[in-house]
Sequence to fold (238 residues):
Amino acid sequence: MQLDHNRHGLVIAGRSGSGKTSYLARYLRGAPAQVRFVFDPDGPLTMRLGAHSSAIAWDPVGMVDRLGSGWVIFNPSRMFPGDNRAGFDFFARWAWNVSGKMRGRKIFASDEIQKYVPPTGAPGEGCALVWDTGRQHGLDSAVIAQGGNRVHELIRAQTTELVTFQLVSRRGLEWPGDLGLDLKELQALGKGEFIAFDLEGGAKHRGNLFGFQRKGKGGIPEKGAGGNGPKAKRKHAI
Ligand SMILES: Nc1ncnc2c1ncn2[C@@H]1O[C@H](COP(=O)(O)OP(=O)(O)OP(=O)(O)O)[C@@H](O)[C@H]1O
Ligand SMILES: [Mg+2]
Fold:
């Protein structure tokens, strides 16, 4: 039990092509953690992480094998053909269980969360474990959703930081609106530009992913911090 763990729940939102997957990949590469559990059925995160295909785990043996590297990237297509939701639930439950046996911070990450945890209805056991009781196992989360309205209430309730790229649809803007963010500013963001909002402290930072201007907590490291700086070109980072 890690009851002293200060859980960080990151949600990255934004319209299509705005920079979400690139942000998550940079965040994961820079975040200090014992293990990053990455659910990536279609491969966009693996690609943005610069990970070699040999880094992908397809089954429990591969998952356990990769724990020591600090990265477990799971592709569910062999174990759960055509059923990514079942794959997500399996991987989330496994990540939560494994996290309980390790000290330190772990991160559970997924692109396009609305595909695996539909915004309405029961969230599934894996999701409930990671978001409701992740703290007990030192397990943080970092996920992407196209719009704020596509994030399940359980995940919203456990969000401590919202990073939002340009949002245009009225429904996508609902959650940021509820949080008091300036909707006109969100609608006017350019490609790669984002607002990072700390839901606990209320601090707001504006940044540009492709201009590497972001400063502050919980985000992309500055050049030199952990070797993941903007100019670090690592073809096969993992
Ligand atoms: N350094 C860069 N400068 C400008 N554009 C870039 C740079 N790196 C990546 N891009 C482009 O930015 C776009 C957005 O990237 P990304 O895939 O991260 O967005 P996304 O929000 O995840 O998109 P989607 O909704 O399609 O998944 C891509 O078209 C990518 O080619
Ligand atoms: Mg993407």
Observations:
- Confidence is low (pLDDT under 50) at residues 213-235.
- The radius of gyration is 17 Å.
